[in-house]
Design goal:
By secondary structure, the protein is mainly beta. It has 1 helix and 11 strands. Helices cover 3% and strands 50% of the residues.
């Protein structure tokens, strides 16, 4: 059974930092790309950052560039999202998701088109106060 379990959400002040973790199981970690997505009530789900651990390719949304870093630990089948210089507009439920990436060219669309992802976690809430 495929499982993606997020952790690390919580309350942070503007300018602060949080690190989210996504523990993956039930599939071959290197065969998949994993991304972080977020959704605020009333808004569309948006991709934040994606990574394919097998080759280290990454993608960042403009909102994440320079502030967030996605990384992975292949020994733990875990993907992290380090979020620095948080802003109130980063407040959202953050989800991790996985897509079968296989032996294909890395696709930014995995992050921009959230509906192509195959598996989803339940999400973790991030609240940033001003």
């Amino acid at each position: 059974e495929v499982q993606l379990v997020e952790s690390g959400g919580g309350l942070a002040q503007a300018g602060g930092s949080l690190r989210l973790s996504c523990a993956a199981s039930g599939f071959t970690f290197d065969d998949y790309a994993i991304g972080w997505f977020r959704q605020d009530p009333g808004k569309e789900r948006e991709g934040v950052a994606c990574i394919r651990s097998s080759d280290g390719n990454t993608y960042y949304a403009d909102s994440a560039k320079g502030r967030f870093t996605i990384s992975s630990d292949r020994t733990k089948s875990t993907v992290y999202l380090q979020m620095n210089n948080l802003k109130p507009e980063d407040t959202a439920v953050y989800y991790c998701a996985a897509v079968d990436a296989g032996p294909v060219e890395f696709g930014a669309y995995w992050c921009t088109d959230w509906y192509v992802m195959d598996h989803w976690g339940k999400g973790t809430l991030v609240t940033v106060s001003s």
